[in-house]
Amino acid sequence: MKTKLKPISRKVSAKRAVATIAAQPVVPLKERRLTFGGKWDYAPAPEESRNYVITPRHELFINGKFVKPRSGKYFPSINPATEEKLTEIAAADEADVDKAVKAARRAYEKVWSKMPGRERGKYLYRIARIIQEKMRELAVLESMDGGKPIKETRDVDVPLVAAHFFYHAGWADKLKYAFPGRTPRPLGVAGQIIPWNFPLLMAAWKIAPAIACGNTVVIKPSKTTSITLLRLAQIFQEAELPEGVVNVVTGSSETGTAMVKHPDVNKIAFTGSTEIGKQLAQLCVGTGKKLTLELGGKAANIVFEDAPIDQAIEGIIAGIYFNMGHVCCAGSRLLVQEGIYPKVVRKLRDRIQTLRLGNPLDKNTDIGAINNKPQLEKIRELVQCGVAEGAELVQSSCTLPERGYWYPPTFLTGVTASHRVAQEEIFGPVLSVMTFRTPEEGFERANNTPYGLSAGVWTDKGSKIFKIVNQLRAGVVWANTYNKFDPTSPFGGYKESGFGREGGLQGLAAYCRLD
Amino acid sequence: MSTRLDVKKTYKLFIGGKFPRSESGRYLPAKSPAGGQLDNFAHASRKDFRDAVVAARAAVDGWSKATAYNRGQILYRAAEMLQNRATELVNEIARSTGVSAAKAKREVTLAIDRLVHFAGWTDKYSQIFSSVNPVATSHFNFTTPEPTGVVVVLAPDEPSLLALVSLTAPVILSGNAAIVISSEKFPLPAATFAEILATSDLPGGVVNILTGKRGELVPHIAGHMDVNAIVDGAGVPDISVKLQAGTAINLKRYAKHSPAPADWFTAKVEDPYWILDTVEFKTAWHPIGV
């Protein structure tokens, strides 16, 4: 809709100018600031999804072939944005896991561990190139399967997936340079369990370094997001990756437990909640299995008075509303220095109102669907608890679609350190806002959690950045930026956010034993 | 010749730079290989262990912020002190274990050299293991190791001094504070070594040494919420399993080193990768722009 505003001549008195504008249907200033009148509506711009067919049934990927589960059981996989069933996925039991581990062991002993690194690397390069070719398709599938906005799957998840394979491909024949003075050897069969928040990206984080270092893999995706990993398995077939090098077993947590308990698995890599991470650690006790865990977080995003304020606001938004807050390193605790607290809250209030929530396949969408129903309930419960404990709720007034799982961008002010919303990982688009006075108080409050995955700091003063970066007990610290990822950059936590690193030079150690 | 009565030493614990007896009042006899009573030593309790964790936690902050140069000098100073009092430890090892003085001397001199070796790593390991990462966006991105915090080190029975030194040095050189559970069979050399550390400029609480019964302390080590990592050199499978259970409690880092007893006397254990068992890698990002 176009409305022509008459140009206001300088000669026109202010009073008349106001009258001219007032003649137009204008929303009162306070609301207009939030809604931009009708101008804020965007025409729908959905990404085309009809070209990509999701087969009605997905089998297990074992020894290079798609095979039926022994039990003959399948579970539905739904689109969280519509609650429509997309397909059904095979439920792997112990016998299927055993078959996959045996295939991985065979591939390890007969082919993969014997292959020169240079040749292994060429397979990874091939995989990276095929992923790049199918980027659009993978992004669409990822959005449909997990509810993630296409903007993110298209621009973040899938490009990073390709980049991870490409980066690790080059390591395959250079590993001896990664460990000065030692000879790295593969561990054997790696059992990997990945979560639903970045299904394909987590698969790449796990598979690429594992196979680059000469291991073979049995990997289990989350029950709600199996489709894209099985599509990746097809890519492995297309790349002619030797059979058994990567096997995919789909199913529930029992499938994962069977994998962790399997005596012929040498290495377990898990990304998920701290609670499950501890259970898996218990299962590995005394088995000699090498373990890396990338677990939960409750990251502090610290904003100082001398911060570049508008950049900081964008960073806060990216920190908590990226991927609906389904991010283990999300900046879910905002620590604002007292002097700028009112300003930051006002700007945040305005900014969340501009976030567009809706169809994940729409290219304008900022906030997609919550991945699954139990998660939606958990978010609701924790926010209610925050309000009950005395926090003030600020929520976007956006309309939520009738079907599907949705939660509006939200923040809570007046949160204190003892509130559950300041302690527990919400894993949703919910920010807890707190204040601090001195830098010491800032990093002390930031560190006051059992977690230690990530943190953010915003200030224009360089020496302050180095000081705070040093003081923060977190594996990844973003200074004047947030939620950036790269295959060359190691990722992983301190304290109860797990151990081991993924990505970069330091991430290789998780998949090698050193002689 | 008039007979002179020997002055006997009371062997005590080493916690927070002080030498307390066990709060439990318990002690154990150290026996020579022939079965003769040598001296009594303190039998550390759960409470002693917890006190040691408190002392170690208090020491981490200052020690980890000391410059690498300073930490290197202090570890070197420990080697100097050990050199100066080598005879004392040779005697302690010989009478405890029954080995010849020559063999005991070999262990002590190697322990000195090992301290010198690791002293040199304080300002080098981060250069070897850090990285600047070429990310594909306009950011400066680097990864550096930092000490994990409070670490429990379990020494094997033999070699009682050399293994303790070889396991503890790579833990503290990065800035961690350690609680060391000494050899159960031969605790006297460890207790005497504590007295040497106490005079080597090492801040109190950076190394705490407990003597007594390992098995008794193990569940408390595994369960303690303020312990960040365990370095298990005890070489006892049953203990290893119990310590690993600690990972499931608060995600303590667990590393096991059980070289063959003879290997403690070789350069194999001068391994900078052991330093990595008790560090965390931190990655920092900053945008590049004007």
Mean pLDDT of chain B: 96
Give unreliable regions of chain A as ranges: 1-24
Task: Report the mean per-residue pLDDT of chain A as an integer.
Answer: 92
**Oligomeric state as shown:** heterodimer
End-to-end distance of chain B, in Å?
87 Å
For the terminal residues of chain A, how far apart are their CA atoms? 70 Å
String of helices and strands of chain B: EEHHHHHEEEHEHEHEHHEE
What's a quick, concise take on this entry?
The complex is a heterodimer of chains A (515) and B (290). Chain A is built from 18 helices and 20 strands. Chain A is α/β, with parallel strands linked by helices.
Features:
heterodimer; A: 515 residues; alpha/beta; Aldehyde Dehydrogenase, Chain A, domain 1; Aldehyde Dehydrogenase, Chain A, domain 2; seven-stranded mixed sheet; six-stranded mixed sheet; 20 strands; 17% strand; B: 290 residues; five-stranded parallel sheet; three-stranded antiparallel sheet; 18% strand
Task: Kindly describe this structure.
- The complex is a heterodimer of chains A (515) and B (290).
- Chain A has 515 residues and is of the alpha/beta class.
- Chain A has 2 domains: 57-295 and 496-514, Aldehyde Dehydrogenase, Chain A, domain 1 (3-Layer(aba) Sandwich); 300-487, Aldehyde Dehydrogenase, Chain A, domain 2.
- Chain A contains 18 helices and 20 strands.
- In chain A, the strands form 5 sheets. Chain A has a 7-stranded mixed beta sheet, with helices on both faces. In chain A, strands 9-8-7-10-11-19 form a 6-stranded mixed beta sheet, sandwiched between helices.
- In chain A, α3 (94-112) crosses α10 (253-261).
- The N and C termini of chain A lie far apart (70 Å).
- Mean pLDDT of chain A is 92; it is low at 1-24.
- Chain B has 290 residues and is of the alpha/beta class.
- Chain B has a single domain (27-133, 143-282), classed as Aldehyde Dehydrogenase, Chain A, domain 1 (3-Layer(aba) Sandwich), CATH 3.40.605.
- Chain B is built from 10 helices and 10 strands.
- In chain B, α2 (68-84) runs antiparallel to α4, α3 runs antiparallel to α7 (188-197) and α8 runs parallel beside α9.
- Chain A binds chain B through residues 163, 179-182, 274, 277-279, 281-282, 284-286, 291, 293, 295, 450, 465, 469, 474-481, 484, 486, 488-492, 494-499, 501, 504-506, 509, 514, and chain B through 128-129, 131, 133-137, 139, 141, 143, 148, 228, 240-241, 244-245, 247-251, 253, 272-273, 276, 280-287.
